[in-house]
Amino acid sequence: DMAQEVWVRGQWLLGLLVLQSASSFVIQANEELIRDHLVITLFLTMLVGAGGNAGNQSAILVIRGLATKELQVTRECATNTIASQAMVGLALGGLLAVGGFIRVYLNQGNLADATAIALALLMIVTLSTVIGSSLPFMLASANQDPANAGTSIQVIMDVMGVTVTVGVC
C-alpha cells in the first residue's frame, strides 16, 4: 500500500540525503583551494554528473542482468562483471577526459587547469563504473533491492566526485 511504499522509499531517500551532505564537508575543508581555483566550481557539476551517469549505466546493466537471470549473485559473476565494467570505465573515462580537456582548455586557456579537470574526469568515470556495477551485487547479497543502486550511485558519485576533484586539483 501507499504508506508502506512511502516508508520504504522514504528511509532510503533520507539515507541518501544524509550521505549526499558529506560533499559539503569536503567542499568546506577545501575552501581555500576552491577559492584560489575557480575552475573547480565551474566544472564540478560536469564532473560529478559524468560520474553519476556512467555509474548509473553500469548499475542498470547489472540490474537488468540480475532481473533477466543473465547474471547471478555469485562472487565469480560479480568479479567478472566488475572487472569488465572497470575496463569499460577506463575507456569511457579516457574518451570523456579528452573531451573535458578540450572543453576546459577552450574555455579557460589554462593547460594546468585543463589537465587537472581531465584527470579528475578519467578517475571519476572509471571509479563510477566500478562502484555502479558493484552496488547491485552488494545490495542483492544484503537482501536489498538491487534497483536502489541507480539512485545510490548518483549520490555516492556526487561525494566521490567532489573528493576526487579537490584531491586532483
UniProtKB/TrEMBL annotation:
Membrane topology (UniProt): Multi-pass membrane protein
Superkingdom to which the source organism belongs: Eukaryota
A Pfam family reported for this protein in Swiss-Prot or TrEMBL: MgtE
Residue ranges of domain SLC41A/MgtE integral membrane in the record: 45-167
GO cellular component terms given for this protein: membrane
UniProt-listed InterPro entries: SLC41_membr_dom, SLC41_membr_dom_sf
Keyword terms, alphabetized: Magnesium, Membrane, Transmembrane, Transmembrane helix, Transport
SUPFAM superfamilies assigned to the protein according to its UniProt record, in alphabetical order: MgtE membrane domain-like
Cellular location(s): Membrane
Chain ranges passing through the membrane: 6-27, 39-63, 83-106, 118-139
Molecular function via GO: monoatomic cation transmembrane transporter activity
PANTHER family attached to this UniProt entry: MAGNESIUM TRANSPORTER MGTE (PTHR41394), SLC41A_MGTE INTEGRAL MEMBRANE DOMAIN-CONTAINING PROTEIN (PTHR41394:SF5)
UniProt family annotation: Belongs to the SLC41A transporter family.
Protein name according to UniProt: SLC41A/MgtE integral membrane domain-containing protein
